[in-house]
Amino acid sequence: MSTKFRTVITTAGAAKLAAATAPGGRKVNITTMAVGDGGGKLPVPDAGQTGLIHEVWRHALNKISQDKRNSNYIIAELVIPPEVGGFWMRELGLYDDAGTLIAVANMAESYKPALAEGSGRSQTCRMVIIVSSVASVELTIDTTTVMATQDYVDDKIAEHEQSRRHPDASLTAKGFTQLSSATNSTSETLAATPKAVKAAYDLANGKYTAQDATTTRKGLVQLSSATNSDSETLAATPKAVKAAYDLANGKYTAQDATTARKGLVQLSSATNSDSETLAATPKAVKTAYDLANGKYTAQDATTARKGLVQLSSATNSDSETLAATPKAVKSAYDNAEKRLQKDQNGADIPGKDTFTKNIGACRAYSGALSTEAGNWTTAQFIEWLDSRGAFNHPYWMCKCSWSYGNNKIITDTGCGTIHLAGCVIEVMGNKGAMTIRVTTPSTSTGGGTTNAQFTYINHGDAYAPGWRRDYNTKNQQPAFALGQTGSRVANDKAVGWNWNSGVYDADISGASTLILHFNMNAGSCPAVQFRVNYKNGGIFYRSARDGYGFEADWSEFYTTTRKPSAGDVGAYTKAESDSRYVRDIRLGTRVVQTMQKGVMYEKSGHVITGLGIVGEVDGDDPAVFRPIQKYINGTWYNVAQV
């Protein structure tokens, strides 16, 4: 099976690509793609082409690149925006910056609608050409004309996901950073997790806020080496302790102190010991003090500082000192989840019909709706509109698909048949008071009326509903119905038999005459014309036969003011009649003839006016004959026969 769709590098394109591979050769800079409709049929690409068969649109390329899987494949991409269209696409062409057609291709037939037609889409066209050397083709384009396609965005996101081209964050610059839950790290390049912050906060929150120690509470103390002081706010130094120890050493036999008795203790500077028999040194005390002193002293948080906060589950509070609980966050999330997203532009509305109905908005229902095959009455058509929610909006419209076999035919309008394929349906009002308008396309089938606008109005029970059809430049009302005249023509034979019916003013030798033209365009006599001259100057007619037109010239009607001549009807003039009247009759000159024995008759055209009877011998009796003569137009004529 032969390939139906293909791309061909033209002869001119092959020459340029070959020249580009030569040393010092100029790269071929492909900048533009054109689309065409092939003149109404699918073309076959030809290397000898220098342009498309019938170009309908061209534009700078959106992208040209090398195929990642096939190194010698070059992919050129064109994006046709939604507002451009109104044409069929059957052929593509690639042009370089010098206007040379480099490659030509055919494609699957596709109609590109314009947004103004009621349906629009962005369409991407790609052409792939195979070259021996990709280096011979310039793969850069003007980025100011680039439109990001879905594939382009997906590729860039995938590339970005695999990329490590991200700077690390520092104390002086933003960037990416690694999280850490450690609480003893000195790193300035890691970011603390909430877990680490919580551990540090809990530790600091549990530390003692420094204050003076008393006998009833822990706190800061001043050291004293005195051994005779009765202060309860000072702490003994090791010197004082030693003096007391030395004194005591000579007294009571020392024993180790425990939590249950006094005694001698060993000092320890450890800050992580859990011993109950050692005593902390000032070093250990200082370490603990410094640690606690550096901790955060708890205070209420504000929008300007960290601190302690009280939790709240309220979802309607405007407090800036309370913190939301997970319950409040969940309530806010659940509420937000039911809201519409701005970046969806209404695409996430679950019930668009109900939504537009509730806000009283117009509804564009569909741009390619099928009504299924068969015939409809007007009542069935209205019920179908009702099932689609057409009467729930102040204005509702849809466009039917272009499938003749999948759309209904409305047969009872009384002013034409409506085949809904390709029609635009508009509904205004509600089911109790409606106006429906149907605009038909320029082509149809099944007897559908083309280029027409049908309007149906029904305002309730007391209203007489019905269809009407508007006339327009493509669907004209007969001239006689409008009381209009036709154009002025050059002569009385200039109005063709298949012209629109109308009254035309014709010029005959400088004088005008009126031509009334009737065209039914049906039957053996599809058209008839009447020509009327001014001042009752005559009426003429001629008629056409089938598709042959007017085969005979004008014929005139005879009237009381334009009677036919004798010659017109084949009658004699008075002179001609007089020349044929018999004005007189007479007997002509006598002729004598002897009679023979036997029977004897008169001579032709004669009568016997006398007989002579002698009787002596046979043949001696005379008979007298005279011709009968008629007097016509001054001349006597013998009659031929009596």
Radius of gyration: 59 Å
- Class based on secondary structure composition and strand pairing: alpha+beta
Strand tally, please? 36
Percent in helix: 10-25%
Terminal CA distance reads 101 Å
Low-confidence stretches: 142-148
Report the β-strand fraction as a percent range: 25-35%
Q: Could you say how many structural domains there are in total?
A: 5
- Rounded mean pLDDT score: 85
Oligomeric state of the chains?
single chain
Give, in spatial order, the strands making up the sheet with the most strands: 17-19-22-23-24-25
Give the overall silhouette.
rod-shaped
Main pleated sheet: 6 strands, mixed
Number of H/I helices: 11
Task: Provide an overview of this structure.
By secondary structure, the protein is an alpha+beta fold. The protein folds into five domains: 7-162, no CATH class; 222-294, no CATH class; 352-470, no CATH class; 479-563, no CATH class; 582-638, no CATH class. 16% of the residues lie in helices and 29% in strands. It contains eleven helices and 36 strands. The strands form ten sheets. The protein has a six-stranded mixed beta sheet. Strands 26-27-28-29-30-31 form a six-stranded mixed beta sheet, with no helix packed on it. A five-stranded antiparallel beta sheet has the order 1-7-6-2-3. The longest helix is centred in the N-terminal third of the chain and has 13 residues, at 150-162. It is rod-shaped. Residues 142-148 have low confidence and may be disordered.
